[in-house]
Write a structure and sequence with these properties.
The structure is a homodimer of 338-residue chains.
Chain A: H1 2-20, H2 26-32, H3 39-51, E1 55-56, E2 65-66, H4 68-77, H5 86-97, H6 102-117, E3 120-124, E4 133-142, E5 145-152, E6 157-163, H7 170-184, H8 189-197, H9 208-221, E7 229-232, H10 244-254, H11 258-265, E8 275-277, E9 290-297, E10 305-312, H12 317-337
Antiparallel strand pairs in A: 1-2, 3-7, 3-10, 4-5, 5-6, 8-9, 9-10
Helix pairs in contact in A: 1-3, 2-3, 5-6, 5-12, 6-12, 8-9
The structure holds a DNA duplex (30 and 30 nucleotides).
Chain lengths: 338, 338
DNA sequence: GTTGGCACTCGTCGGTGGGGAGTGCCAACA
DNA sequence: TGTTGGCACTCCCCACCGACGAGTGCCAAC
């Protein structure tokens, strides 16, 4: 009974604080919400909530603001994800359906997510580990320089330049392509790497095959696509509110460190679950005042990448979670069709 | 005689202001530089410089700061580009030589440039208009969906998915590839587009060739590589000094608008000339307090793209110009070799 | 043309004193 | 036991003030 009202008070505090960015006091609270009790009662509840560590006051005799723990309770129990409006759904569909290829899907998604949430959006490029090799192409640019093109079932194309220590002619290239393609064609790339290891080079090869195989393995293990993250809406850092140095600066630096971004996005969650990491719960204490809302995407129930947004702990969680979930669903659907 | 000293005073003001970011007064000036005259004399010179519009004071009885016109004179006549140190040259070479392909060169360059200048670096992806077609590949993913791969002499690979209205078999694909490849192979892409227009489809084609040609033309005209710009060092926005809203915010927004960035970089300058656009000289008045230092790069004397940095008007022009020039030279050299 | 002196301007910085929002506590009441 | 109104108290915010000092313009002297 009282407990219910206390949670209602907490919810009201979170909502008001998110909306106004200012500590919220007992009087303002009863005015803006129909709590049916007097400010004095709310004050008692606030004292109890503070005792539990759910809210705090920046200084004596100021209003209260939620703690990370308070946001956590709010996200876990006091709110449901707002469904997107029909207009928003249409906007998502129309923007994403115009994509011409996989990279374009990622780039459009990241923009879209930034627009919808007014925060910094992150979309991981899909991992390749479940893809199969659809095609291997080998083109001689010069006698000692080959271009290797790898086409995967996901529609992704990887290319590598291969420098050779000894020259090769067109026939040699064709034969080599036949051998390599035979070893990897149709395989999941995880297996393809192992298969390549068993391949023996002909006696007069001169290290050419080894060089190509090495490049191919590197292209498949691929440090430049599955570990890459697209960033959008960096301008939204502007309303992070906190001081530039403590809040915006480290994030701005992180936006160019894809390793950091990947860690922020966290592990892929399958099954449409949206993960929320609030403030200090994250891996970096520089980001103690930022939260990350993320989820996995991929065809079927299989997660091939993560996407999400990062914003101040003081953010609109229900709306953000809804946007992240909606975009992930549409991206997944597109991958299903492809 | 006095005129020479006045220019020395201007140079000293620019240098001190760039170093300290604070208005510089007459007394500090004679202490930090060997001008051989008294503060009073310097004050007279300053009054004259202000009369000419080369310096200004933020408010009465503060020191002077250079105007855009003052920076312009400084850049044009009072300074020479500092050569890079041997260590810096080695660093540039070692970083760029590790690049595995063209995209990697661009990405490494932009990071390098940001590091060298401590500013926001921009590198335009090389334009394709002078490239020739080295290879066209056509792979049937499903009977009604083809993957088109275009390999250019620059080492760039473009791919497009082509949806067909009627199915095609492997022989049809092979024949089509033969026809298309015959039309464009070895040509500069500007000519290749025209040549494709003369190609007639066999009677039973069903619109397949048209679809492929359309995709190929689009891939060649290519709105996603020559008009793309890599951005690095966004974190360096932090020390732009001015207020966040007026200076950092608009730039942060622009960093995701490649069209704006291209316009900032300006027209390609060939022949190793470095262009400096100071403050209001640029195309956008939102960027009245930022300068752009840019130059073209490309094999030989031909410019295939621009690179540069954008920073506060109060920047180290000699050092920045040197870094931009050095990076452009190394990138050009790499393109020469490829 | 240069220099030292001097009065003046004006931004910066620390201190001060309401005003006000908000709190905690307590006594009264249901 | 929980709720309410009253009340004194705390402390941030802001505007105002005055001292300080860096820097200037001007002028008379060299």
């Amino acid at each position: 009974m009282q407990d219910e009202r206390r949670q209602a008070v907490l919810r009201a505090i979170v909502e008001d604080y998110v909306a106004t960015q200012e500590p919220v006091g007992s009087k303002a609270l009863v005015e803006r919400h129909q709590l049916g009790v007097s400010p004095a009662t709310v004050r008692n509840d606030m004292a109890a909530l503070e005792e539990e560590g759910l809210i705090t006051q920046p200084h004596t005799s100021a209003g209260r603001i939620p703690t990370d723990k308070g946001y956590r309770l709010f996200v876990d129990r006091l709110t449901t994800i707002k469904p997107m409006s029909a207009a928003e759904k249409r906007a998502i569909a129309s923007i994403l359906d115009g994509a011409v290829d996989l990279d374009d899907v990622v780039q459009r998604s990241v923009r879209l997510l930034a627009q919808l949430t007014h925060q910094v959006a992150l979309v991981q490029y899909p991992t390749l580990s479940r893809s199969t090799v659809r095609h291997v192409e080998l083109v001689a640019l010069t006698p000692t320089r080959l271009l290797l093109v790898l086409i995967l079932s996901s529609g992704r194309v990887e290319q590598r330049l291969v420098e050779l220590t000894s020259p090769v002619d067109d026939e040699g290239v064709a034969a080599l392509r036949g051998r390599v393609a035979g070893a990897v064609h149709g395989r999941v790339i995880a297996d393809a790497g192992a298969e390549l290891g068993t391949l023996v080079a002909p006696p007069d090869d001169g290290g050419i095959q080894d060089a190509v195989v090495e490049a191919l393995v590197e292209a498949m293990s691929d440090h430049r696509s599955s570990e890459r993250v697209a960033v959008g809406g960096a301008a939204n850092l502007a309303h992070f509110g906190d001081s530039f140095e403590v809040s915006v600066r480290p994030l701005l630096e992180a936006l160019e460190e894809h390793v950091v971004l990947l860690k922020l996005l966290g592990e892929a969650q399958s099954g449409g679950l949206v993960t929320v990491r609030i403030g200090h719960e994250g891996p970096y204490q520089e980001f103690a005042s930022t939260s990350v809302v993320s989820t996995g995407y991929g065809p079927g129930d299989e997660a091939v990448g993560n996407l999400g947004v990062v914003g101040p702990t003081r953010m609109d969680y229900p709306g953000t979670m809804a946007a992240v979930r909606a975009v992930a669903r549409y991206v997944s659907r597109i991958l299903d069709e492809a």
